[in-house]
Amino acid sequence: MERPLLPVAVTAALSFAAYATFVQFAPFTVKVVQNQVDTNMMRAQNFLAASPDTVLVGSSLTFRLPTSLLEPQVANIGMVGGSSLTGLAIVDGSGQKPKLVLIESNLLERPLDKDAVQAQLRFPERFLRQHFRVFRTGYDPANLIWRGLTSLTHQTVADIVLTPQAARAFYLEQQQLKAHPPEPVNFQHNLQQTAALVASLEAKGIKVGFFELPINPGLMNSPADTAVRREVRRAFPSGRYCWLDLQIPGGAHTLDGVHLTLEDSAATTRKILAQRKNCF
Known about the structure:
Layout: H1 5-25, H2 36-48, E1 54-58, H3 60-63, H4 67-70, E2 74-78, H5 84-94, E3 100-104, H6 114-121, H7 125-131, H8 141-152, H9 164-177, H10 184-203, E4 207-211, H11 217-220, H12 223-235, E5 242-243, H13 262-275
Parallel strand pairs: 1-2, 1-3, 3-4, 4-5
C-alpha cells in the first residue's frame, strides 16, 4: 500500500532542515573535496563569499599554490583543468571589487568555460550559497563523509605522490602537447577576451597584473610555451601592466614537469605576496 505523500514530504523537509542547521553552525570549514569539478566550484564559491584584496586566476598550476599562505588577503581561483579566463570572468561578473587581480599567463590558450561562470553567478543559486552553507560545494553529505574519512586516516594534499612512471608519462604527454604553438585563431580570440575582461575590471577601478609560473625548463622553452609567452607579453606589455618575477634560481622543481613541488609552490607563493604590493 502506498504511503501518504504528506508525511513523507514533512519527514524529508525536517531532515533537510536538520542537516542544513548542522552544517550552517558546524565548527569547521570544508577545504578539500572529492573531485576536480567540485574543487573548482569550491574555490570560486569561497571567493564569492569573501572580500579579499587580491585574487589569483589561473589553471591547476595556480591551484597548487597553498591557500594556507594566501588567505584571507588573497583568494586563489586556480581552475584544475581550466583557464585563467574562467576565473577572470567570474571575478568580473561577481560584483566584488578586489584591489588587484593577478592573471596566470601560462595556459591562456585554454578557452573560457562559460557554463562554469554561469553556474557560479546566476540567481538564485549564488544567493542561496552566500547565505546557507548547505547549498555550497563541499557541504553535501557525500563530501562531508569523505572529509571525515580523510581526517580519520590523516590524509592531506601532501600525501598525493605520483609514481616515477606516472610522472614520466605525464611529462612525455606534455612534451607532445607543447611541441607546436597553439592554434592561432582560437588563441588570439582568447587574448581578445582577456583584454576585454581586463578593460572591464580596470573600468571598475581594479588593478590587473600578470604572472608566469615556472615549470620544467625543457617545457618552458617548448614551441607552445614560447609562442604563448611572446603573444601574451605583446598583448599585455610590462610597460603598461604589472608583471611579477617568479623565476626560481637553478630552475623549478616539479612533480611532473609542470606542477611545482610543495616546497617550490610555497616559495613562489611568498614571492607573489611580496611582489603584489608593487601592482597596487
